[in-house]
Backbone:
């Protein structure tokens, strides 16, 4: 079974469509993580982005960490995750605001100075793309650090929301592994490949 077949089958059999356009994926992607699927996902991102030569992978805690770590293994580069609260040990963070799609609140994201270095090529990996708010905040922090975003890898894109178009408008190299055209309690319809 190909990575895409495995991902689509897992989405179809293990996720639930919630009110308000949210896909509950805590049986394989969020609170509980399928390691075999993550390994395949990491490899798929490696194959798509290998020519971008990323030097760091970046994501947001906590749901992005599993697929981002899988990609970091394949590229053999460090993973940096943005924190949603500031530990006492954090000295001089760069800060951005992000609106959480699933929690419907604004959250601050913290990146300790020096973890992303000026001039570095950074690949953003996340679990979902909805309205592109996470992308906008990550791009700001990467730019504030003097580095460059070289691509955006998404496990599940909800194609009817604004994020996809925002990334296209910014000419980003976007790789969305599974792209959902529509979903309801009756089922999930994937975009044509
Ligand atoms: P965006 O910033 O693109 O609006 O939303 C992306 C972020 O919101 C992701 O980091 C993800 O954690 C969360 N998210 C958005 N839509 C969904 C969804 O349908 N299901 C889950 N589990 N998370 C989502």
Residues:
């Amino acid at each position: 079974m190909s990575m895409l077949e495995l991902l689509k089958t897992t989405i179809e059999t293990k996720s639930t469509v919630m009110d308000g356009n949210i896909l509950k994926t805590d049986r394989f992607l969020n609170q509980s993580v399928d390691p075999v699927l993550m390994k395949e996902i990491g490899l798929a991102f490696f194959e798509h982005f290998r020519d971008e030569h990323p030097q760091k992978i970046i994501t947001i805690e906590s749901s992005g960490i599993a697929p981002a770590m899988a990609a970091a293994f394949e590229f053999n580069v460090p993973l940096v995750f943005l924190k949603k609260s500031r530990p006492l040990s954090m000295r001089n963070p760069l800060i951005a605001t992000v609106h959480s799609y699933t929690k419907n609140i604004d959250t601050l994201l913290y990146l300790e100075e020096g973890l992303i270095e000026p001039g570095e090529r950074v690949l953003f990996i996340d679990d979902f793309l909805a309205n592109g708010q996470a992308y906008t905040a990550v791009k700001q922090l990467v730019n504030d650090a003097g580095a460059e975003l070289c691509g955006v890898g998404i496990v599940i894109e909800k194609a009817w929301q604004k994020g996809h178009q925002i990334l296209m408008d910014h000419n980003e190299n976007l790789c969305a592994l599974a792209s959902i055209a529509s979903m309801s309690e009756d089922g999930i319809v994937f975009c044509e490949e």
Observations:
- The pocket of guanosine-5'-monophosphate is lined by residues 22-23, 25, 30, 60, 63-64, 101-102, 126-134, 163 (CB under 6 Å).
- The CA atoms of residues 18 and 24 lie 7 Å apart.
